[in-house]
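PROTEIN DESIGN WORKSHEET
SECTION A - STRUCTURE
LENGTH: 403
TOKENS:
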């Protein structure tokens, strides 16, 4: 970031200051790193719930009769077959087939989608989508009905994650809001011609699905998604309503163990859940195949999409290295950039690593030579010039217990 670039603040910055947060520059945003102890915040999410400000994330709305067809062209996965009320994890690649970003896309209606890119990548994703929209409208489907709006600067995002998150959302629902909800258009397993209560709809909302709710008089999108490995929700609202929603959720969570949580806890939680972070596991030097995401490329389901030929060529050769999990019984944690050594040769590199607060030992994600990526394989990791023993394991490191 240049010296003349002003660091940005979310609409909840004042709330974080009141809570005594320690801030850090994250992708050009002044974000809360922690409020007190990041270990306590991590444990709160695993045992009860944490509330996160994610308003630095991007939001791009695609609308029109050809919205699904455009996404099928612009992104690698198939979106035309998504059901309204669902969400999909996916990636966007550049013209050479390398990862620009990973993102979540929600189908809000038959002709409406919401794309959520990572904060630091939002400008690049928006630019790529704008260029692809022009190509789509002039070369692929001339005159098609599709529009794009970057709503990132006007939208706030709050996440409530943890075992008590559902109870918190139910408590926060407006009094009287738990009336009939329907006909059901979310993933709730009900007769689509019937009606159910809002509370029941929240309880039965599936993972990677969303529904409309009203909290504190605010009509918002409630999604059962997250980045922590726990049950949880993400709530999308206009900036003007962010403080009111935050305060309402904090009050609703008081009896359910809710605590504010910063980026430090978010990072340790996602690492335990084996979830990749753009800039660490995913970069412009990474293909979907390198990240184990080649299965989402729609070669069999659609004819034309950006970088189809390039991705096909990249897929003809198995990647030299693949993403794996590493654990150690020692005390020293490997950090991003640490070399992995076998028989004196460098065979990989750690992409993320730290001690696991939940498991009590060091864990790491790493890019490792394919032939060694077998659970149980012993490797050495160079940590400040000394070799430390690690072992390849299946991901995720942590998986929450089924309800």
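SECTION B - SEQUENCE
RESIDUE ASSIGNMENT:
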């Amino acid at each position: 970031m240049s010296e003349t670039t002003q660091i940005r603040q979310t609409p909840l910055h004042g709330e974080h200051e009141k809570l005594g947060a320690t801030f850090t520059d994250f992708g050009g945003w002044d974000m809360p790193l922690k409020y007190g102890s990041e270990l306590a915040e991590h444990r709160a999410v695993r045992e009860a719930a944490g509330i996160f400000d994610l308003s630095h994330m991007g939001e791009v709305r695609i609308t029109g009769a050809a919205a699904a067809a455009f996404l099928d062209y612009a992104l690698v996965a198939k979106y035309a077959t998504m059901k309204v009320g669902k969400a999909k994890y996916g990636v966007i690649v550049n013209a050479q087939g390398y990862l620009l970003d990973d993102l979540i896309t929600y189908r809000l209606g038959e002709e409406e989608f919401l794309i959520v890119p990572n904060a630091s990548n939002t400008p690049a994703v928006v630019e790529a989508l704008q260029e692809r929209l022009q190509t789509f409208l002039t070369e692929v489907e001339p005159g098609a009905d599709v529009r794009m709006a970057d709503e990132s600067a006007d939208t706030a995002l709050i996440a409530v994650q943890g075992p008590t998150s559902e109870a918190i959302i139910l408590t926060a629902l407006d009094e009287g809001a738990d009336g009939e909800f329907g006909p059901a258009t979310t993933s709730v397993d009900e007769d689509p011609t019937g009606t159910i209560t809002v509370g029941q709809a929240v309880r039965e909302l599936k993972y990677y699905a969303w529904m409309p709710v009203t909290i504190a008089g605010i009509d918002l999108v409630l999604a059962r998604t997250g980045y922590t490995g726990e049950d949880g929700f993400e709530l999308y609202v206009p900036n003007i309503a962010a403080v009111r929603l935050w305060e309402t959720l904090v009050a609703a969570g008081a009896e359910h163990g809710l605590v504010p949580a910063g980026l430090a806890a978010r990072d340790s939680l996602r690492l335990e859940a084996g979830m990749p972070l753009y800039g660490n596991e995913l970069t412009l030097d990474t293909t979907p195949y390198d990240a184990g995401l080649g299965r989402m490329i729609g070669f069999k389901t659609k004819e034309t999409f950006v970088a189809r030929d390039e991705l096909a060529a990249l897929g003809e050769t198995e990647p030299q290295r693949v993403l794996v999990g590493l654990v150690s019984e020692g005390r020293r944690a490997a950090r991003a950039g640490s070399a992995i050594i076998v028989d004196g040769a460098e065979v990989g590199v750690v992409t993320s690593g730290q001690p696991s607060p939940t498991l009590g030992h060091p864990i790491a994600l790493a890019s490792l030579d394919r032939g060694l990526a077998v659970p149980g394989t012993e490797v050495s990791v160079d940590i400040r010039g000394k070799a430390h023993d690690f072992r390849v394991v299946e991901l995720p490191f942590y998986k929450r217990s089924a309800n």
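SECTION C - NOTES
The domain at 60-147 is CATH 3.30.70.1400 (Alpha-Beta Plaits).
Residues 183-191 have pLDDT under 50 and may be disordered.
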